[in-house]
Records
---
Amino acid sequence: MRPLLVPSEACGPPVPVLPKVGGRLDSLTGLRWWAALLVFGEHIAALKLGTRVGEEERGPADEVLYFLFGTGTIGVSCFFILSGFVLTWTYRPDGDTVRRFWQRRFAKIYPVYLVSTVLAFVLFSGMGQVPGAVNVVLHLTLLQSWVPEQSLYFGLNPVTWSLSCEAFFYLMLPVLFLWLRRAGVRTLYAVVVGAVALSFVLPYTLGALVELPRPGEEMIPTGPVGGPFAYWFTYVFPGFRLLEFGAGVAAALLVRRQAWRGPSVAWSLAACLAGWLVNALLLPPRLQHEAGTFLPFVLLISSLAVADLRGGWSPLRGRRMRFLGEISYCLYVFQLLLLAVVAVTLRPALAAAGVIGDREAALPDWLVGPAALGCLMFCSLVAWAAYRWVEVPMMRRLRPQFARPGTTGRAAAAAGAETGAPAEAQQPVSARTRA
């Protein structure tokens, strides 16, 4: 099959468009697990298991975890870029409808999200802290990230603020796709570069110039990033995080056209490692959520996609990595609630067993690593159960039927292939039922 040719610029030479849109990109499924692991590591490091409760200075084992995962929120940035890339890769407005696209997105993310929200409500209520009606309504409608107050956007299950962003991305994808699908190659590259540049510039302009008239109570200190508004604007605000999603859209269109020119998987992995080091050691807190690893993640995602299409080398394509990637959405959604239970029960249990001196004592350094690994295994087991008994069954029940009279085979294949959610974190390109 010869590739379709489209103009690269208004008067430029034709650019080949990849005919196999929606083909499997298993490496991106595996990448989802590592993005979720970064976020999990940031949360497990925040527990400070190797430090006595109430002490500010971290113990040696906690220092190691903090060095590795202290900027683990970059995993969310990876998810947002993945979301834009994956959804664009499988999106076919010529053979599907916007309503059906939104219905599939709802079927993919909302059932698991709803279960986690109800569980969070029960946990808070059991501790005598019943969430208010406004908080509950904002979460049920996925609007919490639009309100610059921590008690609301972190009010129930804190990690699900990113799903509020995702809901906005889903609304915007048809618009972004129609705008960028006819853009030239240089324009698409400019979108990627411009988005990366704005991630460095905006935190020092609007994010630094605006103050909230009545900042609410802080669950996470915002001083290092410039205050409550700057923290919300550069980390939680869906409009700002649209930069990452939009860059993923542009990169996917370049790959679809066979116009992507970037480093190999190996060099992209090296760029991500360098970006992580720069992010952790050199950048100020205001830029650590996304700026330092933004471009490296775009390079890695695109190079993995190209490697999958061409049969090139990839360390993330194996069956085990695909399985871990498939459960990563549930791991992401439930991890913090599960770690909250661990934080309440682990030290008392170890104190009762005589492993530590009292219920607030630090864990021995030798035990911190195994305890963190045990928490990861526990959270992964729960994630697998939620994937198996909530995510997959509800997707089958709620998503639109593909093979209906009048539905073209091409549209049905595209609909079956579409996946993702960070959170995306969904199997990006498989047409199997569990996608």
Note: The longest strand covers residues 4-7.
---
Amino acid sequence: MDKRITKLLGNTSIFAIGSLSSKLLVFLLLPIYTNVLTTSQYGEIDLFTTSLAICIPLLSLSIFDAVFRWLLDKEADKVKIISSGFVVSSLSIFITAAAILIGMFANLPELIIFSVASVLSVFQSLMMNIARGFEKVQLYVSAGLINTFSSALITILGLLFFKMGQLSYYLGIIAGLMISIVILAFKLKIWQYIKFNLDSIRVCRNLLMYSVPLIPNAISWWLTTSVNRYFIIMFLGINANGLFSVSTKIPAIMTMIFSVFSQAWQISSVQNYESQDKSAFYSTVLNRMTSLQLSLATAILALMPIISRTFIGEDFYSSWKYVPLLLLSVIFSNLSSFVGTTYIAAKSTMGLLKTRR
């Protein structure tokens, strides 16, 4: 077997251990969520996480993507790159601080919680991508697992023992992010790479030229996959959004598997971008990925009756009917994301921007 395929499979396996374990935990907790929470409460949680997903690239200017890509270069100046990443990410502190003050004076605790979760997500994303840029795959996976397990533990305690409702879910997210950040900071010895000076500010320009076009790209993906929640709430109500949110958990299995592969593929794509037979390599990977997706979608559809009766609460059972169309959309979304990796390898993110218009 081609050594490049072997390395890709090896990295994918390591990412899979972490990602699949954490996602499996979330999936296994679905019966608790759907039996303890009402459809309205679950709809609010889904709205919280959906909004958080779009705030991260906006607050950070997607600088963590640029840091990851630049660190993969052989001659990368790690201090300048990482320092620049922290300079840009620190801007999110001022924005969220203003939002927190508004939340305090207007008595909006949800805004305070959301703001804290947003800024923590920005720095956690930055340090996770630094670990990936260093090719510290095991650390990347471990930090993600710890984040998920910590968040799940606190959420379960809040739901079952303290009866805190959806608030326990929000606090779980914040606690998981904080623990993950602390572990990454110590394992990476991140303070050794932070040095604020004019050089790091100059590097910011190059990084931002790469990362800023990724913001409209992220917004476009978000509009494609998540904005429907707001329309569902507007026309059908928060309960309907709770049902739709549960229906997306099944196709999310395919998204989860692709995201595991994508993390390894981005590294391989960059490392093999200059090779003479890159077209043959890319085509081989694409063909195998497509075959796997179609096989998995078929298996999910065949098992839907069992999955619905076993893992979904009675109030949410009707959500199964939306799964087939969602599976189809996930397949095309993953294919589009795979092709888009070429622009990342070439440092030509303007190409990604054009494809989302």
Note: The radius of gyration is 21 Å.
---
Amino acid sequence: MTGAHRPAEAGRTAGTETTGTDEMTGTGRATGAGGLPEIDVAGAARTRHPLRWVASIVLLVLAAQLVSLLVTNPNFQWDVVGRYVNAQLIGQGIATTLLLTVIAMAVGVVLGVLLAVGRLSENPVARGACGLYVWFFRGTPVLVQLVLWYNLSYLLPEISFGVPFGPEFVTADTNALITPLLAAILGLGLNEGAYMAEIIRGGLMSVDPGQSEAAAALGMSDARTFRRIVLPQAMRFIIPPTGSQVISMLKATSLVSVIALADLLYTVQSIYNRTFQTIPLLIVACVWYLVITSILYVGQSFIERHYARGATRNAPQGFWAFAALRRRRSTEVTS
């Protein structure tokens, strides 16, 4: 009796297929490895999703209507768009927009690093001052800040430099000093510094403190630990939102048109105020904004891929994969 049951037990132990009896019906059932019942996939079929087809048809119809509107509506005046899209005056506005974006982002990044370090400092005065700065500039609209800097002469007719509460060494007229370009740089750069401070602070806090402790145990200095250990890991969390901030900054430069700075939007406005061709000139501005932001997106994707090497199983999706509407497939890792 005992010996007769040993082969069956050995078969179940080795994971071979055995045949059991259903306790409810008394009929036999096939079991696989581990005694689990086998699943018959002979009649399996793919799950149908009719709503997906309905959604696709609706989207295609809407896309066809949009294309038809763009092609058949003469009010778009595509000939005017083609005439102004490469105009020299538009090019000067684009140059001003790019210059303002670069300078404002540089000011924002440098200021953001200082503010992030201050917010992580153990000095309560520095931590409180940096927190107050971030609170104010994130809590007020950037358009208000631009107008305030542009009209600073109402508050301070003259700007002087010297000893606090003491003699003044240099005095300058505020109207002559605060030009529209400088007002735009101050308004955009100081506002961007508050956002970059939170991005950088979040990236630094995302690194495990044990990394710094291990580096200190190996005898590495604080500066080398930050440069070789903390910063490369934090960059994976800093780069994506920073790239988004650059794109947002490019579009935010259009706000400087209210202070009469000749950026892309102000240049377009100055043209259609004379020709009354509002829609074609606004399309020109949209085309150039889309071109520049697409280039920035490509650069951001390459930088993200560089800092994501060896950190994630799947590299970030590139621009061309995004443009081709391709869904990223996960890679199976087998041991």
Note: Residues 1-19, 329-335 have pLDDT under 50 and may be disordered.
---
Amino acid sequence: MASIKQHRYYIYGLCLETDYRFRTPMTVAPPETKAELLFFCVPVTHGCHLPADDCFYLSPDKNSRGESLVQLYATPSGYIMRFPHVADFLLSPGEIVCQLCDPKFDYMVEICLLGHVLSYYLELSGVAAIHAGAVAVDERAVLFAADRTGGKSTLVASMVKAGFPLLADDIAALEERSGMVACRHGFPQLKLTSEQALRFAGHADGFPLVHPAFDKLSVPAQQVGKVAVAALPVARVYLLERHAFDTRVDHDVEVQIESVAAGEVLIQLVRYAFLAEVLEGHGGHGCFFRGDGNDHSAETGGLRASRFHRLARITRGVAVKRLRYPSGYDLLPQVHAAVLADLNLPSHVIAAAAMAR
């Protein structure tokens, strides 16, 4: 599909070229940058017609019509990720095409693309998409992985406010390079509640909702602090466990950081895969492509097997620790201090962080 492109963005280590104008804050790439991924969005009156036996994954979550919210289909050139009655995303090496079923769902294009679709594309391309936020500390990536109610957004935003540039808000893209694990830059958005935006950005006015059905706002990261735009070596992955803190009963703020047993690290990374259920349902189906467009299925045994080996290599190259900490905005500086101490940072970095607070 040929078209004149008007925009180039950096996202997850790729230069994305598109004529689609994003509402979500994006990192602009210079016009002369070589495009590595093309994105098209075209309206259609009907989705792709595919035989039922081409469908190899149906999510257990259903829409109001009883259809699976996310569906995967195989094609000779790649895959189709279908969101019924909203859009079909056709994924092939170097290209993603969105077929939008109804113009009223235009707001869903970015929600689907920047979440499920790009995460799936990364996994197909040999990059692990982990449900974690990431900040840059002394030119290294520090990741915070948690469930949706685990306090990840608050902790990441507070670190950005304290002077540590944002690397990724919700999806951390990890790849192993000759024994070193790197985290790619995502895009400069923080998804915050109105209360969080007021605290970290200074106001909550004018920020659009990420999704009409949810209360989180799309806040440009530059409204809170700085943004890192290059891949960085990973220093730590912290698994968050936030607990309630009652000042009437608890007098000592205790932040605990402990190593995770080697045998558990792989289990945790599998658990925190952004598309854990989808990838597990994918199994060994179909081809596995990287950016070169070649079929690597014979040497990898399918996506599930290659993903397992990829995560195993990542576990050997990065330290994973459990971070238990008390909830409360006023207690976040103590959490920052514990993380910085665990990282064995130079004194000038710790001093600069203290001044930022």
Note: The mean pLDDT is 86.
